[in-house]
Hints:
- About 70% of the residues lie in helices and about 5% in strands.
- A four-stranded antiparallel β-sheet has the order 2-3-5-6, with no helix packed on it.
- It is elongated, with a radius of gyration of 37 Å.
- The chain has one domain (about 1-385): Outer membrane efflux proteins (OEP), CATH 1.20.1600.10.
- The chain has eight helices and six strands.
- It is α+β, with helices and mostly antiparallel strands.
- Helix 2 (about 25-35) crosses helix 4 and helix 6 packs antiparallel against helix 7.
Amino acid sequence: MKLILKLMLLICFANTARGQNVTTPEAAVSAALQNHPSNKASVYAVKAKKYEEKAAFNLPNPEINAESPTGEFYAIGVLQSFDFPTVYIRQKSVAKAETRLAQAGQRVTENDLRYTVRTLYLEAQVAEYQSRQWSLRDSLYGAIGIAAARQFAAGEIDFLQKTMAENGAGRVHQERLAAEQKLNVLRQQLASYTGLSNLGTILPLGVDSAGLTALPGISENPSVSYDQQAAQLAEKQINLAKSRALPNFSLGYLNQGPRSTPIDYRFRASIGIPLWAGHYLAGANAAKAESQAAAARVEVQGQAIAFEQARAQSDAATALANVHYYERDALPRSRALIAAATRMRDAGQVDYVTFLRTLDEAYEIQQAYVDQIQALNVAQLRLRYLSGN
């Protein structure tokens, strides 16, 4: 009968777990990329640049006029001006480069959003883990406070021990309430970023002990790619600025003679000579200076990313070693401390002051273990962010 009852309980727990709405980190990231306004804005920015590509061949509007050159009749004329064809070719090239820059900016936004959501998810996991810890600790300290009050009433302990036990229970209870409030706030923030009305449950906090994987080159970082694309755009703008110094043209039709003037003599053509070349030269020099600045920004960004990667790798390696230490040595000692202190307190071998101090030290070890898990996961999230993943 007991075996049947256990099997039924296991089936019920399994059905309950399957029925839960679990939101994984990747599901949260996917929802944020689909729903968050910042990503929508970057998508629209790319669309706007693609439309601007079609406007690169921007001829001036034709001029249609009516004149009476001979004073005898009105002649209808039309005039169309246009730049040198190279200008339109290079404008198109610049417009395409601006589209690629907007796409690079979109990848930066997506990478930032992924990092923010994953960080929020990790903070929510830590807060949920700590909330459960404080809940268990609250139950234990509450029971200790009740037992101390009963023993004080029976004259078994003094007022100091009773007060210390009650203060400890009250402090832990307040910590539990603060942890629950923090968890609620983080869940609300995560729901706001993801746009999910029902966030459901999140995965429990875990340790990624697989170690550090090989990272791609810094050129894969979206911020570096953005600066590289900005440098390429600056190069295109140099060529466009130089083409502005090329002649422009205009073609027109207007009969400036008698009505019998042959058609061949009613057309006109003109060419604009770029004699005032100073401002064209200044524009080209400005474009060159901006290109040099963009190239320098690429180098600066590359160095910054390389430094951050090295630091994050060091932090991850340190945190991983600490996690292994806590799992191997510190956590077993903390559990042994709690068990020994409880046993000695029940046997009346230690007072409540020493008992509570021992419990606090043991639980601080467990809290430090959670801090190291968080430090490890934060460092690995930072590495993923820096590699554009």
